[in-house]
Amino acid sequence: MKITLKLFASLTDYLPESSRYTNIVELEVVESATIGQIIETHQLPPKLVHLVLVNGRYIAPADRQTHALVEGDVLAIWPPIAGG
Predict the structure, then answer these.
(1) Is residue 84 assigned to a domain?
(2) pLDDT, tens digit, for every residue of 25-83?
(3) pTM of the model
């Protein structure tokens, strides 16, 4: 099945080089792949995975290992961001 992965800020370094400018990559994943599996597959450091949305809906850290994605989902991940 196909999903869209969007990584923001410093996490764009974990995308293929051709996708870093747009921060978006289309992925072919197994049916019922979980957010946790996508994070592990792309070797995203857990401490950098802060805000996670699926189709604009917040997914709590406790639910990320078991939340199964479906065809067409958009998974967006942000690192913790400090500013001033």
Answers:
(1) no
(2) 999 999 999 999 999 999 999 999 999 999 999 999 999 999 999 999 999 999 998 66
(3) 0.93
Question: What residue numbers bound the domain in which 12 lies?
Answer: 2-78
Q: Taking the CA of residue 27 as centre, how many other CA atoms within 13 Å lie in the half-sphere pointing to its CB?
A: 26
d(CA 26, CA 35): 15
Is residue 65 situated within a structural domain? Answer: yes
| Spatial separation of the C-alpha atoms in residues 30 and 42, rounded to whole Å | 15
Q: What b-and-e string marks burial along 20-33, b requiring 16 or more CB atoms within 10 Å of the CB?
A: eeeeebebebeeeb
Name residue 25's amino acid. Answer: V
Residue 40 CB partners (closer than 8 Å, separation 6+): none
